[in-house]
Amino acid sequence: MRVLLARPPRRDFTEPGLPVPPLGLAYIAASLRAAGHAVTLVDAYALGWSWARFEAAVAAARPDVLGLSAMTPVADVAARAAAVARPHVGLIVLGGPHPTAVGHAIFDECPAYDAGVSGEGEDVVCALLDWWAAGATGAPPPGVLARGHPLVPATPPADLTRLARPARDLLPNAAYRYLFATRPGFGTMITSRGCPFQCSFCDKSVGGSRWRARPAGDIVDELAQMHREHGVRFVNFYDDNFTLKRERVVEICEELLRRGVDVEWKCEGRVDGVDLELLRLMRRAGCRTVAYGVESANASTLALLRKDVTVDQAPAAFAATRRAGLRSLAYIILGAPGEDAAAVRRTIRFCHDIGADYVQFSTLVALPGTPLFAAESGRAGSVKNPVDGDLSRQTVSDLPPEALAGLLREAWTGFYLRPRPVLRLAQDAVASGSIGEAARLGAAWGRWAFAAA
Ligand code: B12
Ligand code: SF4
Fold this sequence. Notes:
It is a single chain. Helix 9 (246-259) packs parallel to helix 10 and helix 13 runs parallel beside helix 15 (401-416). By secondary structure, this protein is an alpha/beta fold. It has helices at 23-34, 44-47, 51-61, 75-85, 97-102, 105-109, 122-133, 216-230, 246-259, 276-284, 299-304, 313-323, 341-353, 371-376, 401-416, 419-432, 435-452; strands at 2-7, 38-43, 65-69, 91-95, 115-117, 144-146, 186-189, 192-193, 212-213, 234-237, 264-269, 287-295, 327-334, 358-363, 380-384, 392-396. The mean pLDDT is 93. It starts with a strand and ends with a helix. It has a 6-stranded mixed sheet with strand order 2-1-3-4-5-6, with helices on both faces. It is 40% helix and 17% strand. The radius of gyration is 22 Å and the shape is globular. The relative contact order is 0.10. Cobalamin (B12) binds at residues 18, 20, 22-25, 27-28, 67-69, 71-74, 93, 95-98, 101, 117, 120-122, 125, 190, 202-204, 206-207, 238, 240, 367-369, 388, 391, 393.
């Protein structure tokens, strides 16, 4: 079959935009191609296409199948793409975290969808196309959401090495940027899937709790291939928990050093999963930044979030990161239930005290698919965040939305309107070739700060 996989255009062209590769679609493309389908991939978001151009491209391609991906807060964009594409396409399939979290509700949200894929989609999508080609009679294969049929969950792949590598040859690789990269030539990669922790705000519907990791040799082979074939020189490891198993990180670093792969990288870690020796090895092997889910300086909030770390583990991890010569990024949640303005300000101050190089401030959102959703979805107010463009977050908090928005503004401006972070960001934007993205983010940020003032 002729399959078009598409990441639709931006909802709003004034939004800052994060043109990072659509890795999930690239995995799906590789799997479909290996099964003999003719696959094209359009990343209208990264290419800055208008909606008119997107519709014209779909109408010209007239594919048998259109595959889209969605996260819940931006699910309306995929629905708009499906509606626009409907007259020009046979089967329209939605995959990703949104259909996995909400299931058959996607058919009520958007009548243009014919089917959905729940969970990791590489095997399921091939089975779905076979079922569809055979007339869609009888029960759909496991993992497929179809109208009038109950979902039978699919078993996710246990051995990740049997999956075809992402079809990066179908991506507009030169269009990808990342603000904190230290060099141009940006790519992303996943070396493990799943996470055994149970943080209440995190949607693990796709990857699940069973941690499955790829061996070091396979990971470094892919990195070398990205460097050789696509000019990638800085990689974000998007694993939920890159540092979960210390010995695996050591193996990856040693393999990178042994083979001399010239790629710098950033990964996500937990403050309880690093030490100075490991961080120094990571630095030697090309790591430049480690992002940590610090979340809060309030022990009661960490307990509510079921983060399974203590407040005093963060300063130690950030100090070790600094001593190893690495930059640190702290993910922070402000205004969780139980927090008043003083508690929020304690966390804001904490970010300065631990010496974080970058901070990403958020509010607490109860997404479907998270343990928090069932408990808290009834009392959410809307709060805007400067990095979200026109997206507002349905935030769970005891603070009134306006008060929390004010504290969020205080946090962002207090942290970033200082010479050091501004200079560091400017330096990274130049080094990574992301000046355009940085300017757009700065403008969106300025509009937000001005509107909120
Ligand atoms: C990288 C990342 C991003 C990147 C880019 C995502 C992208 N374009 O691919 C950035 C930084 C931009 C981002 C932003 C956001 N993100 Co994000 N992100 C991730 C992260 C860390 C990794 C995604 C990834 O590459 N996974 C690896 C690939 C292989 O998995 P995958 O994408 O899920 O794809 C598989 C399946 O979903 C399925 N599939 C996916 N698409 C399709 C399509 C078809 C046709 C089929 C058949 C199957 C299929 O098959 C794939 C292969 O198995 C995940 C966490 C995670 N572990 O997945 C969060 C995650 C996806 N993000 C999340 C959220 C909430 C957001 C934001 C909405 C946050 C916000 N601001 O409120 C924003 C959205 C901003 C925007 N305007 O789009 C949530 C989504 C939860 C939900 N229910 O929707 C996640 C799951 C984090 C979490 N644990 O809560 N994100
Ligand atoms: S927030 Fe991180 S550590 Fe917690 S469950 Fe999600 S992926 Fe795992």
